[in-house]
Structures are given as C-alpha cells and as structure tokens.
Amino acid sequence: MAKKFPIHPIHPERNCWGCDQYCPADSLNCGNGSERTQHPVELFGEDWQNWGLDFAARPIEIEEAEQRTLMPPIK
Fold it and tell me: What is the value of pTM for the model shown?
C-alpha cells in the first residue's frame, strides 16, 4: 500500500519524492535516477494543488469559427 503523500512537507528538499520510499536526498535507494525528484511544492509553489482548477471551457463561438476555417478533407 502506498504511503500518504504529504501536501506541505516542512523540508521538502531533504527527501526524494520519486517513489513511496521517500529516501533522504543523499542516499537514493530505489535507483530512480542520479538526482532526487522534487516535491511539487518546490516546482510550482505553495498553491501547487490549485493549478488547472480555474480552467474555463473555450467559448462555442471560437470553436465554431475554427471549424469554418478548416479545409475540407482531401478525397
């Protein structure tokens, strides 16, 4: 069973986040690579869980305009 993934770890730079072992950064036991995998909070900031939640669907008018400008299929 997988370990619970910490949302806001205190010191994310101390661990590798590439697998469920969460190895210390100076001893990568899993062979996941030669560098540690960063926690999302290190890559995207404190609000990393909210990324993409404000996605809005494209207006229908734009999609219809794009359909009108597409070339017909070649037969």
Answer: 0.60
